[in-house]
Amino acid sequence: MKRWLHTFVPSNFNNIWKLASNLIRSGKGEAWLAMIYASLGIFFTPLDLLLQYFEKKKYQKAPDSTLPQIFVCGPPRSGTTLVTQVLIRHLPVYYFNNLTSIFPRSPITALKLFKPFVKNSNQKIDFRSFYGRTSRLGSPNDALYFWDRWFGKDRKKIPKTLADSKALEMKEFFNAVEDFSNQPVVCKNNSLNAYADLVAPVLKDAYFICLDRNPLYLAQSHLIARRFINADEKVGYGVEFDENQNGSLNHLEAICHQVDKHINMNRMQQEKIGSNRFIILPYEEFCANPAQFVSSIAKQCLNVTLDPVELAKELQPLKVANTRKLSEQEFQALEETYQNMKEKNT
């Protein structure tokens, strides 16, 4: 049942009932709507299965892609949702909306069917979200259920290989998306910072924008996410590494090791793919001058020229979420744990 539910709810939950309770008590409209969309996905599963027949025909008929894809990735809680929203708002690109979460097996067919009622509107994209969840049906969605097709539904595991048959399916899917939208696609998949090297050879025009956030505040966000999403600070959030297989680390040590692993993974992926396609983007610097970074990404990835001065008139500096949200004692303990780990590893 858990594996089936992963199509509609995050696979990194630990206690689904506690998670639902936390979402309801959060008071966030995006959280409530995420639950509604998940319920609608379950309700419309028979229709989704029916439309899947027509969906597969689109994949088979679509011509090869000629436009790039931009994938935003990086550690969870590193600013990937915000960067994705900014890029969608200010670039001539296509994105996957929340309607596709209701029809994960037949997104293109469903988008055509419901196009009069649900349309993508880049200019109306706001920068609000709750753990990556957005509100309107036409708002961006991570669409991780597509990646589940090719890499499996266990989103905590880092894929080591990509079967040829799955690689072909992925290529055909993005061919069909481009044939439908006639635009480059921008989407977010945090975990690609761990296996972009499996995707890059298949989607040869793909670019990866990888977020790099201050490690201390990233660790703090992971601790809060463990408590909110998993209702247990000892249960990991996001992809799992093997640094605590024997359970010898306490939860603060495990979080700090996970953050450090992500930082190293970012660098490893860039070395494998090349800095021209795997672009590490400092979160804090992006927030300070988003117009400059958006114009740079537009030129490098899309060959589109944007005037950063003109863009800055609309795209002002963004608020950086690097503030202490734990008690002073706990924040200090987290900081000391991270520093001790770094000193031990040097």
Index terms:
single chain; 346 residues; alpha/beta; Rossmann fold; 4-stranded parallel β-sheet; 16 helices
The biggest sheet amounts to: 4 strands, parallel
CATH class: Alpha Beta
Mean pLDDT: 90
Q: What is the number of helical segments per DSSP (H or I, 4+ residues)?
A: 16
What helical percentage do the residues reach? 40-55%
CATH architecture: 3-Layer(aba) Sandwich
Helix/sheet category: alpha/beta
Number of domains: 1
CATH topology name: Rossmann fold
Contiguous low-pLDDT stretches (5 residues minimum) are none
Question: Taking Cα atoms only, what radius of gyration do you get, to the nearest Å?
Answer: 20 Å
* Shape estimate: globular
Number of strands: 4
Please provide the ordered H/E string of secondary-structure elements. Answer: HHHHEHHHHHEHEHHEHHHH
Termini separation comes to: 45 Å
Identify the strand order in the major beta sheet: 2-1-3-4
- Percent in strands: 5-15%
Q: What do these coordinates show?
A:
The chain is of the alpha/beta class. It has a single domain (2-345), classed as 3-Layer(aba) Sandwich (Rossmann fold). The protein is built from 16 helices and four strands. It has a four-stranded parallel beta sheet, with helices on both faces. Helix 4 packs across helix 7 (107-113), helix 12 crosses helix 16 and helix 14 (290-302) packs across helix 15 (308-314). It is globular, with a radius of gyration of 20 Å. The model has no long low-confidence stretch (mean pLDDT 90).
Short description:
The protein is of the alpha/beta class and 346 residues long. It is 53% helix and 6% strand.
